[in-house]
Amino acid sequence: MLYAEINWGRWIVRCPVCMSAEEVVYGEKKFRCRDEYGGCGHVETISYPSERAEIEDALSERAKQNRNWVPGESVAALHAENIEHGARRV
Q1: What share of the chain has pLDDT > 70, as a percent?
Q2: Total structural domains in the chain?
Q3: Is residue 90 a part of any domain in this protein?
Q4: Fewer CB atoms inside 10 A, N or C side of the chain?
């Protein structure tokens, strides 16, 4: 099982075999590392966080390049970072 994360406001999955990353649509069930783009063709199931709306809402207060979230990072931590860095909705 692979875990989706958010990078620059996009849901992505990182390939554990070749370390490539692919953009995915939230809820997509299978990850396939696209070999036509230099990936390895690895296929695996994707896991997503249940608190999608809360994560995306917290990230929406940041500039696009700072809209990042990794599995295990809490929504409370995202809000604390927003306050610490003075993030405002953009």
Answers
A1: 97
A2: 1
A3: no
A4: N
